[in-house]
Amino acid sequence: MGYMYDSGLGVVADAELAVSWYRRAAESENPLGEYNVGDMYLQGKGVAQSDTQALQWFQKASDQGHTGARIKLAYMYAQGRGVKPDLEYSYVLTTAASLAGDNRGSELLSLLERRLSPEQLKNAKARAFTLQSNSPSLIAKANLTP
Fold this sequence. Notes:
Layout: H1 2-7, H2 15-27, H3 31-43, H4 51-63, H5 67-79, H6 87-99, H7 106-115, H8 118-133
């Protein structure tokens, strides 16, 4: 329902109403709902823009294996949006999404591979494998423009 109001699919677009529907799903611990609420905060669409709120909602979805949320989080950590920059953790998140079959963060991976030391890459790959092996894979198509 939120998507209908977010995109104006068969109804008049209403970002605030979309956030309301997304939030209902998110509060039920639905990872797609959590992702969508995070995205609305990231864009400032239907809510006041807040990197902090976006980060929190993306983290919840990421914890449930939502690959799109992992990639958005990775960009936020790479750019230091709402959080102290952490290129190694950004690599962990993007690699975990890639291990799940979601390669939409491949450009970010390439950038990070040039900026991290061999030791950091080794550690990040091990952490990504552990993260991915301990969580479900929820590949959800999403607009990943940071």
